[in-house]
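Appendix B.2, paired examples.
Example (i):
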Amino acid sequence: MSSRRILILGRPKSGKLSLVKALTSTLPSGLTHEDTSHAGLTHSIALNTRYYSTEAGIWIDEIPVDTETWLNEYLSAEAVPVFQSLAAVILTLNPSSSEYNEDLELLRRLIERGEDLEWDGIGLVVGKENSSQSVSIANLCDEMAFEYIDISKSGDNEYGGTSPNITAKDVEKLGKARVLEVLHTCDWSSAPDDTDSLGSLQDGEIDFELNAFDEDEENKEKGSEKDVEYMERMMAMLLNARGIIHSESSLKVEIGQEMSLEERKRLARRTVETVAKMS
């Protein structure tokens, strides 16, 4: 199995699981009911071409209401090993949503961060045409240099046909077949061994995060809640990037509905110790 991953991200009801089902014919485990958050779910996909066959992991994340805090986690220094483990980032969009402009901007900033890190992955936008709005999304993607794929389409694009001047190289697939075609072009060799970045997290950042649990009494509850949520999410990202944790045991934000804050602190500490032993 490749050590590199596909990150599929999008708003609730934007088609994340529909895309996974279209690409793999199955759904991730861990979906206990229809209201289950998709953040942290994992799956895998078999990629087969004439030249290679591999299995790649899929990590699903959900864009929350607080987009700035969510984005800053991906842009942080701690998340560099996560970013470098990705071969592709796919944004799913609901063409009828009023938030697609903001979501495209989030993807732009993620890809911009990747360029700063000399990331060699691919950014892609996938939607499902259900209104004339999808046309403007395609235009916006063109302006931002993103490829937009309408997952509801199939066959070949307008460059195909029966003209004798048309060759196989001139024909571009549509829909699911095009998404797979793009994924086949990704580099599925081992992700960079970014031990320096991980070491920084183990030493300074982990000490900082653990010490943050011991703040003054006045800010204890609020600060601890925020720190634990950040820790849960960052550790889940790192462990998923290393292929160590699966969806059934992923540290997801909704875990707070099942555990007290003190229990979550203890779990976060144990997870930090796990990450610290990975180098």
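Example (ii):
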Amino acid sequence: MVEHIWTVICSQSVVDRATNNISLQNILEQIDVFGPNFPAGGSIVVPVNIDLVTFWSRSIDNTPCKARARIQLIAPNNDILIMNEYEVDLTQHTRNRSIFKIRGLPIRGEGRHVFLVELYREDVWQPSVRVPLQIIHRLTPVIPPAEPTVGA
């Protein structure tokens, strides 16, 4: 059986070709978005690069297995902003990493957005983990134009 081990949100993941080890850079728990007010009820795309990295393993080492998996990004109002289904294939190897490169993050206002990772088991999607990403909105101060000076 496929077993979820961990999921991390970071700004970049790098896999070493010689060792196959992974480095997760700038683990993200919060993103500050600077700018004017968000559109009421609408979503925006934040120009940020995110890697969502999930590590899977066999629950029994010598038993090959496969499973359907799904990730979703869920807004504070429960709207689904991203959804991607894929296969976790552990027939040849005992473990697997899934790396989703998100270039431009859709958000729906401020608050707690959640990456939900699920496995399809017994004809139903079952949650494996929920990874929160807090979105903080910070208004960009409007600086009035300088008053023209009159020289004498």
